[in-house]
Write a structure and sequence with these properties.
Length: 146
């Protein structure tokens, strides 16, 4: 998240509230049960966000399952091929429009001049994360001619 520029350390402006964060840990295992790798994800406690302050719009489009099935059927009928695109950690690319501040996560060290993080990009758990990602992706595909 730090490498992607998701947040920056700052002082909390007067009148702003902070959203808490939480670490989620997971052990990924191989088929034989041995440990493949350890995973950690930092999520925002979006349930503490306030409408009109921390977020406004949350809608993001999602394809209906029946539409997806229709596309697959038409593709098969005409002998076309389908390609799949997966953007790893997609939400972390969504540009934030609102000013959202979160508490400094446990275990993260910052200069003592700062007391919170400003979220520059969306993160997991925010109410507007899906919308922010969708708008960023939409702007990108339009910029390359789609």
């Amino acid at each position: 998240m730090k490498l992607r520029g998701v947040f920056r350390a700052t002082k909390l402006p007067a009148g702003q509230n902070t959203i808490g964060t939480k670490w989620l840990f997971k052990i990924k295992r191989k088929s034989d049960g041995s440990i493949e790798k350890y995973k950690a994800r930092l999520v925002a406690k979006g349930f503490k966000q306030k409408y009109g302050i921390d977020y406004t719009e949350t809608f993001s489009p999602v394809v209906k399952y029946v539409t997806l099935r229709m596309v697959v059927a038409i593709t098969k009928y005409f002998g076309w091929t389908l390609d799949l695109l997966d953007v790893v950690t997609a939400f972390l690319y969504g540009e934030m429009k609102e000013k959202v501040f979160c508490a400094i996560p446990e275990g993260v060290e910052v200069d003592e001049d700062f007391d919170c993080f400003e979220l520059v990009k969306a993160t997991y758990g925010l109410k507007q994360a899906s919308r922010a990602w969708n708008e960023t992706f939409h702007e990108f595909v339009c910029s390359i001619g789609f």
